Amino acid sequence: MKLPVHLNPNGGKGRGRIAFQGGSYALAISAIVLALLVVVNVLVSILPTSLTRFDISSSQLYSITSNTKSVVNALEEDVTIYWIVQADEEDPIVENLLDKYDSLSGHISVVKKNPDVYPTFTQQYTDETVTNNSLIVECGDKSCYISYSDIYLYETDFYSYGYTSASFDGEGAITSAIDYVVSDELPQLYLLEGHGEAELPQTFQEQLEKDNIETQPLIDENYYPIVPVATGLTVSGSASGATVTELLTTSDSAFSKVSGYEMTTYDEEEGDMDGPFAVAVSVERNDGGEMVWFSSSLFLDDGYNAYSSGANVNLTMNALSQLIGEREAMSIRSKSLNYNYLTINESTASLLKVTMIGVFPLIYLAVGIGVVVKRRRMQHEPV
Question: Does residue 230 surpass a pLDDT of 70?
Fold first, then answer.
């Protein structure tokens, strides 16, 4: 017995109509999403960079510190930063930094000056040869020239006796220049001279100049104090009319050689003084006077400062900041340009390789196959 077969002559057309409607719907959705992306992209492009760029570098190379914000927010006069650079020679890190200064305050304006167009512009500010990406900070009649070599600092490698790029000091140089051009009075550092004292190390002198600290001789007359061979400082707490605070101390196993420079061995001998000792103290008198005493005459030597990765000069500058009174521009230090590499062992590297190359692609493939199969089943279901 044969069963009757009923054919729907419009079945193929119905499925085609459904497929066409689905394709039109997908096309419309894609066009709407694309238009929304274009609109969002345009809106984001007009936002300030502080809202659209995020600094994930370990040294916060592309960020502005709170010290700079304090200096800039306190401005009451207009400051102009001239960016001396040829066309298409802009340093991207300097450009990013200047954009941040420009957006921080209405008192700061950044003006780009092309030396090819204005060849004599810099002559009114400096006699030096001005290189690309150098800066000139001006406020009223005062100005400060920042060479490109003062923005990227180089240190001596004592192993190869060559120069290696060490740090980026753009923020410190610019904020210091702003602080200089808007200040009527600068702090004074008085130096004892005329008795055979060694000159200040170059690194320390450069840091003083950067922090706008002027040096003056303590007295004009020569006098000859008697200073015996120094030993470790012992703070007993019995100071009269003053408070003594230990800043740097030795370990408990330290000892002081009584024979001084005449010692014949570095080992502890009978009669040597046992530690611990203070090697840097802060003395604050009740009547308001204050001083910081470092018991080493070689403390600021360039060699020892390099061995400590700049910690000696930083400590001294922080002590000066405390004596002078906290000034935000003094606290900005250069930012390292050295990269911190992520080191992983071989087994972890193999696991990541298998996961990225094998597992994830298989998961994406399985999801894709599942979506395709589901759509095929939906298309073959009777309507």
Answer: no
